[in-house]
Amino acid sequence: MTEYSTVEARLYASIALVRRAEEVISEIYPSDKIKSPVHLAIGQEYIAAAVIDHLRGSDYASGTYRGHGVYLAKGGDLNSMMAELYGKKTGCAQGRAGSMHLVEAGKGVIGMSAVVGTGIPVAVGHALAIKQQRRNDVVVAFMGDGSTEEGCFSESINFAALHKLPILFVVENNRLAIHEPLHKRWAADTLTERVATYGIPATRFLEPDVLAIHEHVGKVIDDMRTEAGPAFIECHTHRWYEHVGPCEDYDQGYRSLEEGEQWRAKDVYVTLGQSLDEKEKAQIDQDIEASIQAAVEFAEQSPFPAAEELYNYVYA
């Protein structure tokens, strides 16, 4: 594992890997080499980086179909992820899952799902197992604001609170459920306050302050390891690109370019990078570019699954 001189450098490396990997994916995507839809997290990467930096190898993280950042931050293999997007045998799910269903059990990455909200109760199940086994590991469940409208969200929060499970719920609130703005879906923008009524610590971050999120989550997870029970954070953020695919969509009428420009002016990838020692940042960037190029070459040179494997793992 690479050693960095500061927390800022370590977080930047995590954020930069996701940003540059997704930018390269967006460049490749129109060629049809990538065999699955891609939901890019560009602009939101800092949340997963800040939270997962506190996790150990034995901890778990669950993400959504916009999960490249969670997968990579938790230690998922970049080569395996890229090969999975290409539909190759060497992918993390042997080419069967694509971008929306990333999984890396050996690194504690719980299988992701294309169905909104379904990863939440699965993550709670992992937390229940940890408690029953009397381990001091934790689970982090990432979700979008749209997921909080699914019934399993409230059920999972309640169950985790009732049984004091070691799970942190993280809402990446980009204020969009596909193309539907939050103000058309919620009678009141009080998600954090509603969650607090379950008797668990609930905190909202309105700005992309990666260091504040990192500091807060560190304390929360330390407490969780000593049986403090679940906690919740809501991080307001901005999705730079369309719901699915590599293009901007500010011309579609459901959100404004002005809002996008305000968030881009606060881009953590840029601001955090500017705070680093120039030589260290240059080395981080160089290493990331080399690893991404190697991952693309690995994916392109890997074989597709054999035709006779088509019905493997099919039980109905």
TrEMBL record:
<feature type="domain" description="Dehydrogenase E1 component">
    <location>
        <begin position="16"/>
        <end position="307"/>
    </location>
</feature>
<dbReference type="InterPro" id="IPR050642">
    <property type="entry name" value="PDH_E1_Alpha_Subunit"/>
</dbReference>
<dbReference type="GO" id="GO:0006086">
    <property type="term" value="P:pyruvate decarboxylation to acetyl-CoA"/>
</dbReference>
<keyword id="KW-0560">Oxidoreductase</keyword>
<dbReference type="Pfam" id="PF00676">
    <property type="entry name" value="E1_dh"/>
</dbReference>
<dbReference type="InterPro" id="IPR029061">
    <property type="entry name" value="THDP-binding"/>
</dbReference>
<protein>
    <submittedName>
        <fullName>Thiamine pyrophosphate-dependent dehydrogenase E1 component subunit alpha</fullName>
    </submittedName>
</protein>
<dbReference type="InterPro" id="IPR001017">
    <property type="entry name" value="DH_E1"/>
</dbReference>
<dbReference type="GO" id="GO:0004739">
    <property type="term" value="F:pyruvate dehydrogenase (acetyl-transferring) activity"/>
</dbReference>
<keyword id="KW-0786">Thiamine pyrophosphate</keyword>
